[in-house]
Amino acid sequence: MNPFSYARVTTPPAAVAARTQQPGSYFLAGGTNLVDLLKRGVVVPEKLVDITRLPLTAIEATPTGLRIGALAKNSTVADHELVRRQFPLLSQALNAGASAQLRNMATVGGNMLQRTRCAYFYDTSLPCNKRVPVQAGPDKGQPNGPTGCGALGGYNRMHAIFGADAGVAAPKCIAVHPSDMCVALAALEATVVVVGPKGERRIAFRDFHRLPGDNPRQDTTLGADELITAVEVPANELAAHSTYLKVRDRASYAFALVSVAAGLQLEGTTIRQARLAMGGVAHKPWRLFEAEQFLRGKPATLATFQQAATLAMKGAKGYGENDFKLTLAPNSLVEALTLATTPA
Amino acid sequence: MDINPKNQPVDRVDGRQKVTGSAKYFAEFALPRTAYCVIVGSTIARGTLDQLDTKRAAAAPGVLGVFTHLNMPAIPGWDAPVGGQADGPPPQPTAETYRILRGTKILFDGQPIAMVVADTFERATYAASLVKATYTRQTPKTDLNKHLAAAIAPSIPWMKDYSRGQAEAYKTAPVVLEADYVVPTEVHNPMEMHGILAQWTSPTSLLLYAKTQGVNATQRAMAQAFKLDPRNVKVHTEFMGGGFGMGLRTWPQETAVVAIARQLGRPVKLVMTRSQMFQLVGYRPHTRQTIRMGADATGKLVGLVHEATAETATYEDFTEGTVNMSKFLYACPSMQTRYRLVRLDRGVPIWMRGPGEATGAFALESAMDEMAHKLHLDPLEFRLRNYSETDPEHNRPYSSKNLREAYERGAAAIGWRNRPATPGSQREGEWLVGYGMSTGTFNAMRWQATVRVVLQADGSLLVQSAVTDIGPGTGTALTIIAHNVLGVPLDRIKVQYGDTSLPPAPTQGGSAIVSTVGSAVFDTCSAVKQTLVELATRPGAPLAGHQAEELALADGQLFVEAKLATQVAVAELLRQNQLASIDKTTESKGGPEQQKYSFYSYSVHFVRVRVNPRTGVVRVTKTVSVADSGRIISPKTAASQMIGGVAGGIGMALTEEAVLDHRFGRYVNNNLADYHVAVHADVPEIETITIDKPDYLLNPMGAKGMGEIALIGFAAAVANAVFNATGRRVRELPITLDKLLAVS
């Protein structure tokens, strides 16, 4: 990695100011992804702004739900009594992610901002439309790699089946967002609280991550000078019937091929409300709005789940090695809904 | 004598050192003024290096040298010496030549194009990132599947085509199976990174801290490369964080580091990166196999053909015993094997645990399961009907074979009777359940080693051998052998190993070390015992008049077995004779009986799996592995070794595959997050059983190897269990869930 400067800040405004003053700077929190990116030469910073001392670690009940500080550790959130009781979906999703060691380091804010695990993004000798080219020059590293999407026509077992071609004639990037936590937060309709030079802003979770379109370099709608301070999760009636199902190539420490966050509110055997999101299938946590709407008022039966799964797959497209996800994704949705409605 | 009458479960003698961090691995050795070397690898797999800009790297802080094809110091001997011995001859040079940092031709992805040396590892790493290369790219050939037509027969006699009986007799059988099986490229991925620390202690002498499975092999290779007297090359590898075969040869980058250390006049250390571990220290080669098998209505094999085609480099032919076990495992009158290579733009493979046979067993033992299904026979019964009582390949007896008992005990332990006869018919909740089994086998060998044993007047014992302990517990086994021959208490025995200053031993590999070095310890301790007996029974000595056969040793006492009271302390005996010690060094190897018998170890693996019918997820829920590997010296470390083999086998079966993007000839999962070895959550209860019957034809302890057989065959057992659970036959490893989607 290249030589860079390092600054430690202790207040959110100071963090924002430090980053605003120096465009080539990055926030450092748990570092579980950023350090990888530095070592691989994907991120070539001029400065790291260490935000780990900011007072943003609280997890607290609010009149409308739960507020989680951006610097709360993944493992702390997963094990928190309020989270386990009221938002088991979030707890399950967090515990499905990474390894115990990584969850002990990773923060909630950092988890939301982790970059894709696409192999082409990490190898600067291979083509990628998502890597930001770096200008050559003293201590600025090399231009980091050719453009184009390596995964198209290449190794795309892990890649997107939804949304890569939205708004463009042909996909420029088929990478997926790797987080488990965010899939649960999407289903839970969380709100992201951020602060920037102009003050605080609130972003609905569904609008926080974006599809690649013609600008795959941009993962989120967060401004370059903004800092995530908290996530708010509204209270819900889904706790009794929620499941996070992560389908992957090994039982732990592997990214999702497909994951499903399913939360249902049942009245007897009738579905009053459904919240569904998938991971491992798109450039962002993929909400299944149409399937949710279909399930409302329907009986919680296998036939209903299968119909919902068919609806959920509208617009899905495989790119070769990930074609199996066109079968795996609906099957996983049925499996998750079955688990969510099976008495423990 | 029985080498371990009490079957003591002895703790690993170096366990405390390993878990407390006091065991020193090569990279932990510190020498004054050490410089750090970082490799810059090619990012193309085939072509030419046009320009290499090293100016910025050379000017970076702390940089001591940037070595490329333009300024690489000379290596007077040849610079890619090959050592090692696991399962066949070393890789053979072809018409193409690979010499590190010589010329501009790129033969494989990751080929070193520069080695950057600086005063710290971090500065070397940064400077390496500043080296800029431009290439003329050629389309790389890295896909075995696309170049099968270019397959060649290796020129190595050991690998020639084999035939007995009638050619293609399988075709005449009433029931015929023809199927292709694929094992992908797999990478050893030990925890410890590869590398070397080299210091020239004089213009003609070298000190090396290496990651090698054989210090003597590295010593010979470096002496040859630098035209030194081997006695002036000292190599130290006491501990290794996993070898699995990747340390079976001296790799070119190690030799280059030695040359650079001489040029710079200071010690140089290389610790490779994880991604370089995929490129520069070998791998299990991607291999396609075809099995053609015919059986009659009584379940007897009529004919068998086993063909394998494996990838290798353009510059060396690497071969392994992929088709070997098919020649003798079953009593099949007619059989043929063929082994072919495809030279690709790849680094050269190397033996990986259970080399060759692990690949071959996946094909043979999957096919046996398939044929059993066609015959409506229980797959265990089918194997028993074709059990070979003598070696049909060499027409000679087996030295020992207790495979039948292994089958019986394994079947009982897994509950084989619960296996559903009809695939896809048993469930646990919504999950499908299945049982599978397979057989593994590997040569049981004994090579040559020298051991020194020193019995001190205070009753303590020193045992010395250059052998490296790559993790199986060699030091523990040698301690137990010495303890049982000489009766010295375990805590008074010190085994020194892993250094060329000690008596020479072969490279740790091929499951041959307990048989080889253990026998040398046995023989040398026996010579010490002989001297003790002579001293004790001389006229006037404490046990005068007694015969050697009457005497035994235990707890530091030499005594008459029939009369426990008649004894003398070993320490006392030495004092009486005014001896400071009894010091013996002997060379030990197998005798001519090794030509009269066929020597093999055997394993049987039974597994139970669950398969999710919606998602295709496979979970191994129980395994039983049985080893027929002669007398067990160290029950505890033997069980550990089997457990490790099974964990590796689960990875081979379900998750491990090194993936290349053939457009670039470059790995796209070259890290431990994306290359999936089995993690704890993938590994269920593992039951291990040892038959534990001595084979005294191989060595005086009756011990045979078990490192390889712990893995060999395991993947087939899983594939067979998955078939039993789902009715879906997966012939291409790993058995990932996409191959099982919608199984019900």
From TrEMBL, chain A:
Domain FAD-binding PCMH-type, chain residue ranges per copy: 1-238
Protein's recorded name: Xanthine dehydrogenase family protein subunit M
Domain of life: Bacteria
UniProt entry keywords in alphabetical sequence: FAD, Flavoprotein
PANTHER family tied to this protein: OXIDOREDUCTASE, XANTHINE DEHYDROGENASE SUBUNIT C-RELATED
InterPro entries linked to this entry: CO_DH_flav_C (IPR005107), CO_DH_flav_C_dom_sf (IPR036683), Diverse_Substr_Oxidored (IPR051312), FAD-bd_PCMH (IPR016166), FAD-bd_PCMH-like_sf (IPR036318), FAD-bd_PCMH_sub1 (IPR016167), FAD-bd_PCMH_sub2 (IPR016169), Mopterin_DH_FAD-bd (IPR002346)
PROSITE patterns cross-referenced by the UniProt entry: FAD_PCMH
SUPFAM superfamilies reported for this sequence: CO dehydrogenase flavoprotein C-terminal domain-like, FAD-binding/transporter-associated domain-like
Entry-linked SMART domains: CO_deh_flav_C (SM01092)
Gene Ontology MF terms in the entry: FAD binding; oxidoreductase activity
Flavoprotein as UniProt keyword: yes
TrEMBL record, chain B:
Keyword ATP-binding on entry: no
Keywords: Molybdenum, Oxidoreductase
Residues of the Aldehyde oxidase/xanthine dehydrogenase a/b hammerhead domain: 20-139
Oxidoreductase keyword on record: yes
Gene3D superfamilies attached to this UniProt entry: Aldehyde oxidase/xanthine dehydrogenase, a/b hammerhead, Aldehyde oxidase/xanthine dehydrogenase, molybdopterin binding domain
Domain of life (superkingdom): Bacteria
Transmembrane region(s): none
Any one GO MF annotation of this record: oxidoreductase activity
Protein name listed in UniProt: Xanthine dehydrogenase family protein molybdopterin-binding subunit
